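agent: user wants the full assembly modeled, not chains individually. Plan: 1) parse entity lines 2) check alphabet per entity 3) run joint structure prediction 4) return tokens. Steps 1-2 passed, four entities, 1372 residues total. Proceeding.
--- entities ---
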Amino acid sequence: MIRIAIVGGTGYTGVELLRLLAQHPEAAVVAITSRKDAGTRVAQMFPSLRGRYDLAFCEPQQAALDRCDIVFFATPHGVAMSQARELVSAGTRIIDLAADFRLGDPAMFERWYKMPHACPELLEEAVYGIPEINRDAIRKARIVANPGCYPTTVQLGFLPLVEAGLVDPQRLIADCKSGVSGAGRKAELSLSYCETADNFAAYGVAGHRHWPEIVQGLNRASREPVRLTFTPHLTPIIRGILATLYAPLRDRDADLQALYEKRYAGEPFIDVMPPGSLPDTRSVRGSNTLRIAVHRPPDSDLALVIAVEDNLVKGAAGQAIQNMNLMFGLPETTGLQAPPLLP
Amino acid sequence: MIRIAIVGGTGYTGVELLRLLAQHPEAAVVAITSRKDAGTRVAQMFPSLRGRYDLAFCEPQQAALDRCDIVFFATPHGVAMSQARELVSAGTRIIDLAADFRLGDPAMFERWYKMPHACPELLEEAVYGIPEINRDAIRKARIVANPGCYPTTVQLGFLPLVEAGLVDPQRLIADCKSGVSGAGRKAELSLSYCETADNFAAYGVAGHRHWPEIVQGLNRASREPVRLTFTPHLTPIIRGILATLYAPLRDRDADLQALYEKRYAGEPFIDVMPPGSLPDTRSVRGSNTLRIAVHRPPDSDLALVIAVEDNLVKGAAGQAIQNMNLMFGLPETTGLQAPPLLP
Amino acid sequence: MIRIAIVGGTGYTGVELLRLLAQHPEAAVVAITSRKDAGTRVAQMFPSLRGRYDLAFCEPQQAALDRCDIVFFATPHGVAMSQARELVSAGTRIIDLAADFRLGDPAMFERWYKMPHACPELLEEAVYGIPEINRDAIRKARIVANPGCYPTTVQLGFLPLVEAGLVDPQRLIADCKSGVSGAGRKAELSLSYCETADNFAAYGVAGHRHWPEIVQGLNRASREPVRLTFTPHLTPIIRGILATLYAPLRDRDADLQALYEKRYAGEPFIDVMPPGSLPDTRSVRGSNTLRIAVHRPPDSDLALVIAVEDNLVKGAAGQAIQNMNLMFGLPETTGLQAPPLLP
Amino acid sequence: MIRIAIVGGTGYTGVELLRLLAQHPEAAVVAITSRKDAGTRVAQMFPSLRGRYDLAFCEPQQAALDRCDIVFFATPHGVAMSQARELVSAGTRIIDLAADFRLGDPAMFERWYKMPHACPELLEEAVYGIPEINRDAIRKARIVANPGCYPTTVQLGFLPLVEAGLVDPQRLIADCKSGVSGAGRKAELSLSYCETADNFAAYGVAGHRHWPEIVQGLNRASREPVRLTFTPHLTPIIRGILATLYAPLRDRDADLQALYEKRYAGEPFIDVMPPGSLPDTRSVRGSNTLRIAVHRPPDSDLALVIAVEDNLVKGAAGQAIQNMNLMFGLPETTGLQAPPLLP
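--- prediction returned ---
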């Protein structure tokens, strides 16, 4: 059994880790921390987990994190990097579901997250945790930077096109729509039911933190520098991201369907759908699958890619467990095989 | 492996059976029928099941139902009873998720379902499939009448009070609220998004088919005849039923919490919550658990019971699988252990 | 023109007053206050009002409230009573949309609102603002206590039965379902989209502040003391309350339909629907109408009443304007005639 | 008073016409037709209109359409063109809310709507009913082709850029999101609550009927031919369209804000919002206003325009009444002044 601690377990990624790990045959969650709710039983805060966990939230210092095999940080940005040095020295591996290790350049981190990086010397060894891109490195990593929800969808959506050099990487557009859980479990007016239900809006148009993360990832895959316009929107659903991606084709005759099928052949969590498909977010609700369809819109030289994921699973907790499975030599799909919940 | 056929698999109970059985280690779905969609692959109609099933829907007569160990009827009322005689003769067991075998009295069936009963001689041996009431009989049954969604919640909610004779059974009120999936997967204007979203309404006030079923069940548990007022409402959620139950107490000093905890001790799918709890439907979303809380409202001699279930799971497909597990000597929770999906 | 000030205008009742008063031919909103948002233009906070108001929120002391004809308090409980004495002395009339003047007994107020009453001497003259009950008194009132949202629906729903003595007033049950806007415009986790959408729950079962208000009102109408069980629920809709009311009939032969039609004959905002009707909340969305249907459930001696209102209109801002119209001698429907928004 | 008939009044555009016309001081709806529901009272089908209309639906031939001043066709495509010749000969004016007169080229109509055009000779005189583009022509028109919902938003969103030649018209992208009411009031499985709620999807990617209509309109405004990629999506809201529009700028220094403000100066129903604004659909819910914000995304040479409308008002019934007002010499805003409903 893998001894697991979750730091900051009261958010949606925390409870999603708990839900998924409850079904994982090799996982033993031995500690879950929350300063604010120390002493509260997990099953009291989340009645959906009654009968699944006896644990109570504890203070971080009481969690004996360094005696765990792995620590998931489901915390705000800035927490994981403050504890990373100590933990990896003690032989504990880390998966950070926040952004501390996502951007390779500490200056870029500081610019977007408004804090200096606490352990820039670890940035280089941290592995960006998309298994479909970095599988081998993840297996050996001590620190995995679990990607943001938008970046997972957008990178995997554009990847085959960009890797193949089939599109003009200077003119990429990602028009993305996210469910409200992407904003976290927070007491904020703008996230309240009456402000978000029966409503649709764009946000973060002037600059969203996931933008540099996506561009960094696409640049690594592309031979030419990437320019991306990224427009996130909030749609009144709980879980799910749908990304509508536009890229100008250089070769109008390319077989895009074959390209995608080949790139993702054998990937257990990437579903390249048949030609003409229109994936919807509910088709991945609660699951670690990312579904992709590739289109050629009429009277256009664009490739149009539609990709959907559950932002809390493939976009957060599920991908983190997929990474953990790799890090501990388990079959990659362990504990992640429940089908989506539909309807 | 249990060889399973599903008759009428294109509705929500059908796809929910498929979702749950995909995780069941002893289940092999060998056929699924649909007259209308024969030839269509299951995974084409329900992309959420891509990669889970290779099956296509087939014509009923091509399904070789009598060579299966068990047949689930996820059909409209009237289908199961037309095939029951033949199947049980062939040694195939039946779980009907429709109403054909729910009402013990064929006259009552005819009155509420507007058709004569096709095999009244089998009605007597059919077992009403609430394991928490009829566990032993279900184990041996050839035909299980899987209960309606409301009847499961309301009966299990009132049961301890009525069995114990603690309340006046002539003055029971069940004010129930159901998600829209309870009405099935149908092209009906009244079920369309624009007619049901951002809206709340009662329906079926003059007489709902689940009413005689509930009364029959409570009468079996009660020493005195039961009278029930049953008011169903439609609430804009996909899955879930919440029943608010009112019953006049005869003994104001009774320890209701202890009564419920004792009655349901050891039940794997009934969660009697701590005093003061207010269960919500999402706490059981996607799971076979029914959660119950018992209250004493201020300045009143009523018992107030709040019970929640997922109408497609404990109210339909999940309870059917629970019944199947009993019928085939498996641990009752087999394949039903995934936690609820929250948020 | 009536010179109007709104104190505390940033909540949902505040913006609803603004929406409705924008269409009122005799209303001039001259000031709107908010300590927190002083200086912000109304149309900046509420883009739906762009082009309708040039006003900015101001500090309360800058609002010259005593030079207005009427002040609406759309504030938390406790604010109106602290300013009432001064304002009425200056000849300014008051409509409090909070609870300060709803309960006639200051001890009761203190018990439920956890603060002493600041002007108990004014409680007696304050008029409880349901025009269908207190029309004449409202016309002359200096202080109107605008009722709570649940109390409006439940009192008007039970009223004809209780006034006529047709039911046992000791055994009333109000099973109520409210949209989320009833909880106000607040940054609270429990009101966030991901906690309330696709979910249904009861709350306040152990005692809700609207309970004593309803009981007080029904006691005034009844010759015998009233006992009420009141169960509020939260349903994922923005606006709307549906009350399902149960009352044991003393006279099984009474013509309930005629009773209701007669009691509310000529009322511009009460719609007694035809026999068999099932009003839904959207049929009153955005309007000041309260729709009622009366039923006799099968095999029962109960009267079953279903009443719907928009909690922000007839349950708050609309009724406040209806009261204002009476206080200033205008036709009662002035500015309140726009039809509901459906779908 | 303008004598008005509505043909095909049981859909969402029909009931929206009724809602809006109930507040219009110069409108008298004298007939409303429906073959299927002839004899049913309007207020029975739409309880939200109880007390507003005494009318019942009637058979089309009984409606005496030719004695009306104007007939609104809120019908499926193909109905208006079959009656247009006769009505205009009788001096009755027509506003078709379907597509019969939207495309100027009968071959194009036949290609997209799969039926020959019934009166191609009237196509030329029919005026495309966007007042902000064709105000003068609408005043004199006998036949107004009321635009589609998407075409209104997308054309008005792109218009200033395209008219000014500021963008490359060969590379326009309209990523659009619509509420479910845009699909009409229909008994279709794909529109049912359980299929659309808590879900987000694209549709019509291979070719949507509104695409040629938009391209036609933009071509009329542009000096160069237009190519447009149009991706419609369905979002779980009842009313509302949000269009996210991308256009490559030719002049990076152009003052887009000034351009839009100037183009729409004095327009009563176009709200060019301040720089940095992010309009949401609810800010126009129930109103005839279209709000627009213009952005320059970072590291990009695109103009990004976000436009929102209520698809049933500015996208259908409201714009139809705006057109009617022009046709009958009334102030353009008559009957259309109620503020949006928020929350």
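agent: reporting back. The first strand of chain B starts at residue 2 and ends at 7. Chain B has a mean pLDDT of 97.
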